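User: What would this chain look like folded?
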Amino acid sequence: VYDTITMAPPPGPLRRRQLIAIFTVFLLAIYVNNLNQRLSTFVPKENDGVNVSSLSIHAGNDSSKGDHTAPQAKATLVHTDPHFIGGFRNQHMRFVAFVNYAVSHNISQILLPSLRWGDAYTHMSTLHENLFDVKFWNVHAHSKGLPLLVRYDLSILEGVEKLSLEAPPCWNVTSGLYNGLDEKMLRDPNTNLRRIDTLGLIGSPDHGEMFSHCKGILPDAPDSEMNMINNTTTRKYTHLIPFGGGTGAGHLWNQYNQMQSARKSSFDTIKRGNQTVEIYPEHVSVEKAIFQLLQPSQVLRDAMEASLIGSFEKARRNSTIHPLNSSNNDIEVTKGDAYPRLLALHPRVEQEMLRHRCARFMENNLTRVFDRLSTYPAFQANDATGIQFSFDAIFVAISRYQIEKPPGENIRPPLLDIIKENAQTLEQARNNGLFNHSRAGGIPMFESGKGTAENVRFLSVRSFGYDVNSTNFKTADELGVAELVASIINFFTAVKADIFVGVRGSSYSTDVFSVRYYMQQNLKENSRNSSLSGNYLLGPDGIEEVVGSPRPHSCGK
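Assistant: Here's the prediction, encoded as structure tokens.
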């Protein structure tokens, strides 16, 4: 402490007391540092099968104070698999089941670094916080009855009762897996995760029996506030509760289907004009809350907005496409402006889907799909301004590669003819727009997807334990997750559109319907055209409006 005017040292007695205090603090800092080192690092024996370099664990730092991901010393659910499996929406179903497991067992925290999402084509994966807005989730989680997503802190979530001995932590911050599991094998893109029960491997004799206390005891079991192993010298404990695993479709998939059983078994019918409409029960409260809180990360929101703006401006520069379906041809779309009215379409006419058992519910010819859009009465608006349709542009959620790739040698007519025609139709719509029967140019049609996703750059993070000044970025393409990111961008673009047209038999379309329903995107008062509800189902027999909570995903009757 110095005099604020002269900057001179304080008088002698006060200075001596301050030096003593400073020396005391210095000794205390040395003690705490040694204590943290003992807690944060475990060096195993050579023959215990653990990767020594991956066991260095940071116990936390002051910069994390006030962090919305800070954990508490209580039961925390951990996803044991290397990543969720399946396509984006199938992974989402497993995520819903995982969160529901936490809620049903009174677990109020989920370990954020255990949540990873996989690319169905490359089998690579990336962290949850790269893709989704964790802060938005955590701010609203309590009010929705959902658990918080928390970072890993060894000093809070794991430990030993007697500090004279050291015990291995259950969680490995380097591998993002439980200790004792074979990271090289589980992270290998060629490994079929459907054949491996990771939950059953934790603490098993062949995979690190020293981690047997990591198997987990649910907090609602008798006398089990924490998972522990006692002996005469020490007590190892962890607040981490593992869940996931299972072979085949896995535990999470089976539990999700159980959650949907009530919705699949009953529905009501109402008359709307000449049409009989099926009204299904709403989703369970956990799934409804997730539909509302799982939002794309800021970097993906920025990519979506840039893609929309770029696509509209490209349409303006293309003289063969009507710049916007508006009487004001001088309109300029910039960031922050209200977007032109958007119809999002998920036709699901990719080659692999044409032979799927769900294809019988879908219109597999893309030319007929576009024709149905152009003639559906609710989408037409022939008013004094001369605007033909109730939307200005069409966004198509589609895999360009799956449409345009060469057909397999075993594909024969008439399926071969449909594949070729679909590729030609998509290319023509991309270049010339749609519905240009009596116009100087068609309505702009664009795809966001892969082209946008490849250039998305993620900061290399480890569940918020990272240097905010880091310049270490990797693109989604470099991480091998471009298709996954494309699916997420497409999905949320469809969610935000004024009108969405999807198909039955697709989990992707079903979930867009659901998210829009629970976010009230399909209410007439929220649409710029009060005659639209926003959700429509397209099939071989035409287009119909989706009323109420959408039909559960199924390829059955």
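The chain has 18 helices and 21 strands. If you want, I can go into more detail on any region.
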